[in-house]
Design brief:
Blueprint lengths: L6 H23 L5 H14 L1 H11 L2 H15 L5 H27 L4 H7 L1 H14 L7 H21 L21 H17 L10 H23 L1 H16 L5 H11 L3 H11 L4 H20 L9 H16 L10
Amino acid sequence: MSLRPPLALYSLAHLWVDLSCALLVLRTLSGGPYFGLCLLLYNFCAFALQMPLGLLADRLDRNGLLSAAGCALTALAYLAPMPVLAAVTAGVGNALFHLGGGLDVLNAGGDRAAGLGVFVSPGALGLFLGSAWARGTAGGLWAAPAGLLALAAAILWQCRSRYGPGLRSGNAPADLTAPSGYAHLLPLFLVVVLRSYMGMNQSFPWRGTGGWALALTLALAAGKAAGGFAMDRLGPRRASLGSLGTAAALYLLSALPLPGTLAVFLFNMTMPVTLWAAARTLPGAKGFTFGLLTFALFLGFLPSFLGWPSLLTGPASYAGAALASLLLLWRPLRREAVRC
């Protein structure tokens, strides 16, 4: 699949939206008496709210408009007079952008997952850069909302050029019927909960030394991109077996920086696979399934936010999580409906 716009544009926007949200939350909202509430509301709106908004996106059939509106709303959050309102506005904006962009990329990809992997991969780098900007003392915060407004205009122009003045995206007729049954969505949902929980709880003693924090971020982003290409070449089952099986072995050695970084790369290769497989399960409700899996991300975030003790403590636990993910994926990826 070609990486020309709108995929290239959506991927750039993904990086900038996540950078802007991290900067807003960690620089302008942190330290206040309501920061905990703001963090919870932001994550709820950005991830859990995508599920009902996904139904709206499926029916509205104007993915570019939703994505551009998400960029504009996130920019507007910088002007909100109250921290809670800023958190909610940014969260809803983030959700709308991801849904609109994700649906367009899913539609364009058809039976392929490479584009989906490319689209989701820049988010981790955006969060890293936004967090670094927030921890520093550099000004120029105006650049974040200005960039968002420019990206919103570019997305609208690009979609108008592709789809005409009506901006209709060509979504399948909205339909919540699952030809192969909803039971196939449960293991995909659980894999994403586990991946989110791993992301919040895995810890490496070497992470803060010698630039390894950046290396881990790049490995996470590159793993998501590589996962789509690997699935297209090998099929979802063999790609998942190779990536998660090898990740489990490398996690056992993750007290060392290089094996640990490679394990993170391989573990995250299944992200586009799960999104693609869920969309194939409900072809008439891709927005809903996209939101369903982001709701799983929110559930994986909650235990850490609530301060619950981690159930993942060390290399053996990380390896076990990788193998558990493989077992959960094995059955849904076996179906004829999701074969390449």
